[in-house]
Amino acid sequence: MTVRLTVNTPTMASLSTAAAATRLLPSATATATRFSHRSSLALKSLRSSPPLSRVFLPQKSSSHRFSSGRIGYSTVSSPKCSVSNPEQLKGARQDIKELLKTTFCHPILVRLGWHDAGTYNKDIQEWPQRGGANGSLRFEIELKHGANAGLVNALKLLQPIKDKYSSVTYADLFQLASATAIEEAGGPKIPMKYGRVDVTGPEQCPEEGRLPDAGPPSPASHLRDVFYRMGLNDKEIVALSGAHTLGRSRPDRSGWGKPETKYTKDGPGAPGGQSWTVKWLKFDNSYFKDIKERRDEDLLVLPTDAVLFEDPSFKEYAEKYAVDQDAFFKDYAEAHAKLSNLGAKFDPPEGFSLDDSPASGQPEKFVAAKYSTGKRELSDAMKQKIRAEYQAVGGSPDKPLGSNYFLNIMIVIAILAYVTSLVMN
User: Which terminus has fewer CB within 10 Å in the chain: N or C?
Assistant: First the structure.
């Protein structure tokens, strides 16, 4: 059964929480709605894209949404790009920030980045067979995977940005959008690196099934099966689950959650669904607090959410994050960055950061060659010191020494030393 949470806002934490990439991220339903009054495209995209958690939930008749000719998204029209340009990436980041302000599509963008990276299998060495963050999710064959239902809407939202910045790979764009969405929702700054290379054709897409289904008989084991395959550990599973602080689930799309609650009836975005937190477009540690207390029936708790406070190893981190938001932000940022690099092939191999330029006000870096060649004007203090030393041995600025004074002294000393040695012998 394919998982598909109708959470209107894609949640990062859904990936880990739902124990499956699909179920972990929230749907962009909510985000599209607010944008719908400005663009019917945005509205549809937010409604149809499920969150991570929703992804793990049953995806009802998802494949028909992606039938050819209906998607309205084409990868052929976009120029191919093998390496991302740092300056264009910075421009794309600014445009993504503006997109978030008008569409509130934070959850679905988070989910997009997670699902592109979440197919990684650490036991496969070859690229791109190993899956991961390689831009393969842009192809229709992978979009049709049940876990990815609705993500075509995220692609529609990002396509104008991709067209504008042609020297940016899809793999980088997906991860840039995901990290930016977290940061703009109030979350931590993600230590991202870029330079990911895109796969070139649909034949390089991973097979379906790497993103888990919902409703596992053993939630803890299911989460570990999925994330251990990616090379992630228990701390990272719990930290990533915290992204469920974003988004909501719709029962008509995922089979989970209430049709409407007091927190979702007025949007933003399309009204309805059930969220994990009260402020489901704000990234903080509310998810852990609300899951632990379970005092509000209007807030969603999935089996993979509840197990974080039941499994002894998971509980250690969940309890910590519920009381220490700084610790959660630190661990989340590291886990998100790690997830975004899974399976990626970088050019240059070490990747590059968009924040490499030195901050203003920092001291100039010392370069020896700069100070060892060329004429340099002496300071007044140095000139005075040289003048004093020159005059001390009988010279003056207007009358140079008649002979090499220092050489004469050295000769006299040498002669005396030689004579002394002869006398002693």
Answer: C
Q: Confirm if 125 and 200 have CB atoms less than 8 A apart.
A: no
Any idea what DSSP says for residue 275? Answer: E
To 5 degrees, how large is the angle CA 54–CA 59–CA 65?
Answer: 115
Collapsing DSSP states into helix, strand and coil, what is residue 194? strand
Element (H, E) at 325: helix 325-341
Q: Which helix (H) or strand (E) holds 350?
A: none
Query: Is the separation of the CB atoms in 152 and 179 below 8 Å?
Result: no
Cβ atoms of residues 224 and 16 within 8 Å: no
What does the DSSP assignment read for 27-90?
A: PSHHHHHHHHTT-HHHHHHHHH---HHHHHS--TT-GGGG-TTTS---SSSSPP-SS--HHHHH
For 272: left if phi > 0, alpha if psi spans -120 to 50, otherwise beta; the answer is left
Q: Quick one: how far is CA 332 from the chain centroid?
A: 10
d(CA 248, CA 101): 19
Secondary structure (3-state) at 352: strand
Question: Per-residue pLDDT averaged across 149-165, rounded?
Answer: 94
187-225, pLDDT tens digit by residue? 999 999 999 999 999 999 999 988 866 567 899 999 999
Mean pLDDT for 7-29 is 40
Three-class DSSP category at 148: helix
3-class state of residue 149 by DSSP? coil
3-state secondary structure of 25: strand
- The rounded percent of the chain whose pLDDT value lies above 70 is 68
pLDDT of residue 398: 56
User: Of the candidates 259, 227, 313, which has an alpha carbon nearest to the alpha carbon of residue 21?
Assistant: 227
Maximal CA-CA distance, the chain: 114
Instruction: Name the helix (H) or strand (E) containing 243.
Output: none
Contact by Cβ (8 Å): 6, 259? no
pLDDT of the residue at 377: 58
Q: What is the mean pLDDT of residues 231-257?
A: 88
Residues classed as catalytic: 115
- Please tell me which residue, 115 or 146, carries the higher pLDDT value: 115
Would you give the distance in Å from CA 54 to the centre of its chain? 21
pLDDT digits (tens, 9 = 90+) for 303-341: 989 999 999 999 999 999 999 999 999 999 999 999 999
Residue recorded with tokens 């998607």: 71
Alpha-carbon gap, residue 389 to 41, rounded angstroms: 82
Task: Write the DSSP symbol of residue 249.
Answer: E
